[in-house]
């Protein structure tokens, strides 16, 4: 039984015994005691003063005295105005450590067969360019969220929707047709997504040159854009694609397959994956069907020009275009189609979309439309809205080729981790193969942690140099703490020491040791909080505080060289369980841990 449930039950008994008050959950306010006060849990007594007919301080004293007398797990209490701070005994915390040690999946809640099914969409790349830093944040948030939701007892389906059709795809295709000279990933030595992305940039470069020439001839920018032959060719290619032109479709499939192979390589490097991948080219027609069904049922209406719209004025929103006058679909239509296909394939209880905050309005509308179309989970869909990620130099632009490429960034992080680790002598005893693997683990850990420790709703600046630091709030600091503990445990095993607890130690434990046990105990609560708030940052900041606290303990107290064998064995167990929780917390963030550094 956790301390909140234990004290909740005892407090109800107390209130009944003292004041004949039957308190429901709304009256019981138990919270973790603030750091500046002594105690583990604080009970707010203001809701009980009317029944007690005493001042807040007197009521708290009376309740505290009763609880101390009737709750063996408590050791003391103190009163600060109307707040009752309660402390649990050292014996209780020793027993708690043993319970943690006996639970190999501590902090994780298993999903049964009837558990809610949650689908989480993340990544959503376009096939006209490689993944970049913005995609990295999206993928890391989505993948971590999938593990956190699963850790909270849900079944999870990780899904991706690939934007593989549209004018932006045709721009890359047209540029390759015009200037590619048959270049392929094999002939160029480039990853397929990089090659296609280069032609997307090349299109934009030539398009801008064409616009500049037209403007020199006296045309306005708008007139130049409407006159552009290059853009007309791209639009014509899109029309040919939608008409099923065999030559255009063949080129489209070839170039998209180049990109998919490139994406797969990037995903593997990043350590993320998916259970199901959808493609926009396969879902947009389904979206049109659903919109037309809605039109027949009177949910939507047709404009005079033939376009189809949704009137959302009753929801306090505007009108929303769903089909253009020529019958072609828009992004909203495609999202409806993808949702329809997903609902046919999976009995979804909750749908979470991991998409940047610039799409907040889009998902607000999508939720309403899906609900109107009869999707049970539509009304409660979650838009996991996150802020943009920038570099210290500022924003990135795909068309101009100024984005930070995901592959380049990953390689840079691994290389920097290798250099930093070598400078600090952390790879001195490693083989070349071990050193390469540690550099990969640390480099990716630095990248992932730096991004995930930030509240996902906030914009952030990613600084590669700051992220790889073996001190401070960084991934390498936490990974090094884990590796340090693993080294201690290996030596303990070599010396034949055991990780165990003796009850008589209760009176000998230092505050730092008790504090570390209490920190470990909080882990399941943190996992729940991260799941409820959809925030990997909750896990990240918890595991940093845990690593920091362990390092302070390790600095102040000997583990292997403690002369009292009972105390030594206890500290080995405490170290072992700290390592376990660090490993599990980092797992939820998608971060690996090195066994040695």
Task: List key phrases describing it.
597 residues, alpha/beta, four-stranded antiparallel β-sheet, Gyrase A, domain 2, single chain, 55% helix
Strand content: 5-15%
Biggest β-sheet description: 5 strands, parallel
Distance from first to last alpha carbon: 38 Å
Amount of helix: 55-70%
Shape: globular
CATH superfamily of the domain at 407-588: Isoleucyl-tRNA Synthetase, Domain 1
Low-confidence stretches: 395-401
Any idea what the radius of gyration is?
Answer: 30 Å
Briefly, what CATH class of the domain at 407-588? Mainly Alpha
The total count of helices amounts to: 22
Q: Predict the CATH topology of the domain at 407-588.
A: Isoleucyl-tRNA Synthetase, Domain 1
What do you see in this structure?
- It is a single chain.
- Among the domains are: 3-88, 2-Layer Sandwich (Gyrase A, domain 2), CATH 3.30.1360.70; 165-274, no CATH class; 407-588, Isoleucyl-tRNA Synthetase, Domain 1 (Orthogonal Bundle), CATH 1.10.730.10.
- The chain is 55% helix and 11% strand.
- It contains 22 helices and 14 strands.
- It has helices at residues 3-19, 49-52, 56-70, 90-101, 133-151, 167-179, 185-188, 192-216, 221-227, 229-242, 246-270, 280-296, 331-345, 360-372, 406-423, 432-452, 464-467, 475-494, 511-521, 523-533, 536-556, 565-588, and strands at 30-32, 41-44, 74-80, 83-88, 117-121, 155-162, 276-279, 301-302, 308-311, 319-323, 350-356, 382-386, 389-390, 460-461.
- Strands 7-6-5-11-12 form a five-stranded parallel beta sheet, with helices on both faces. A four-stranded antiparallel beta sheet has the order 1-2-4-3. A three-stranded antiparallel beta sheet has the order 8-9-10.
- Helix 8 (192-216) packs across helix 9.
- The longest helix has 25 residues, at 192-216.
- Residues 395-401 have low confidence and may be disordered.
